[in-house]
Design brief:
Cytochrome Bc1 Complex, Chain D, domain 2, 241 residues, 3 domains, 2 strands, two-stranded antiparallel ribbon, mainly alpha
Amino acid sequence: MLAALVLAGGIYTLISPGAQANAPLSAAAQEGKALFDTSCITCHGNNGQGVEGRGPSLIGVGAAAVEFQVETGRMPAARQEAQIDRKPSIFNDDQARQLGQYIQELGGGPQVPFQGHAAPEGDIAEGGKLFRVNCSSCHAFSGGGGALSSGKFAPPLDPATDRQLYAAMLSGPQNMPVFGDNQLTPEQKYDIIAYVQNMKTDVDPGGWGLGRFGPVTEGLAIFLFGMVALAFSALWIAGKS
């Protein structure tokens, strides 16, 4: 019995966050720690545990969340507000990865499963179906974003890279829900990414796209143009009679 308790305690010690925090850091994580101590420690604490009233704990958020927030310039934040908008990042891509690696080794969490900015090839048609079901209610059918409640909004997807899109789905930044692998498999995430990136270069073979906001906008345009045409037709007929 005593031996079993000792064994259980040893296993817990090895897998606990404290053990991860005390484990030797990789070279990339050491570089990330140096950046963290310079730019992040004031709000997120000495070991990423967070500071009340300034910033949340980063233990367990994973590299994906850190990379997304840093690469999109949302972090470091100048102040707390309803929602932090995208802006130019003060860190380059390598530094963002190093910060992410440090937080990953500090407490674990979700990671983007591919290297570089380009995701593996996905199915655009399948991605369109998944996007309309899971994403369009906030980001609109065109990926242009839209207003939410309490001064918040879903940002446009046009500036996002493959890696940022995957990291956002994996970590659920700000008001976005988390789409873990049990909600959307990695392959389904690749499909959505392929669809979103295709929208950036896709043309409108039918003519004016009307912002690609969907059938409501198209119906409104038809109604307005139709009413104007009917009014002019009525005036023309009246003038001829």
